[in-house]
Amino acid sequence: MKFGKDLQQYKAAGWEDDYIDYKGLKAVLKQLTDDPPKSKEDVDAEFFLALEENLEKVNDAFLSRCAELESALDVTTRRSVGGSFDASARSMRTSNTKAESSPAEAKNAADDDKEDKETDADPVDPAVLEIAKYQAELAREKQHAEFYDAYRTLGRLQTFVWINTKGFQKIMKKYDKRQNLRGTGRELGPEFEHRLEKEAFCSGKLEVLTELFKSRRPGSVVRMRGGGNNGPVSRQQHIQLLTGNANPELAEEIAARVGVPLTPAKIGRFADGEIDIQILENVRNADVYIIQ
Question: Which of 166, 207, 165, 200 is nearest to 63 (CA)?
Fold first, then answer.
């Protein structure tokens, strides 16, 4: 498939204007073969100006998406720990109050605690318990849904980085070809690839963000029971991709195309030569695909 069609296929909805303008950059280079052709100097000036503008556009879009994901992760993390934090804070306040009180106040507090325990011993309406459990389940479901929505966006961002990187590499190879630089030792493609590694969208920020998401991924997502059914709840499954040592580049491309970050794993060998594989995160209840 031609790269231009590949690029169109993998553009995420709503992000269309944030990708490399591969077609426009190709059109600039095509001026070298127009009738009459444009001078190499003029084409160079126009091409590299457009190239810098495209790099700036892709970098800005990437950093903007990263900021959105960091914000989403911060929100879901605060929600997940908020309840336990509030409970702990209340417990600490109660303990501090008791520690600072006088003997008479301590006796009164003990009497109050005794009365509270007697009150707590009263039977609780089962309907109230069911409502509380249902509300807690709703809150968990919402938190998990928000997290996995952000995680899917992270997958789209991975595809965004991969396809744009390919685009810049390919347009520079096309530049070398149009300017008759191939095989001369003066190609600009290899030098440009080294520069790409320092651009924001290729700098490793995505990998850091991916690991951060994985470290805070909730457990299996519990779905709500329907119609008052008291049977076991089902759990939402998600895809996880694992790769061996045979072809990591292929695995990275597949992961980018499907928008699912690779699951980290450590691969080594035992003393007897047998392969030792350690999956570094929980894959329970997931659809796991091994690429080898």
Answer: 200
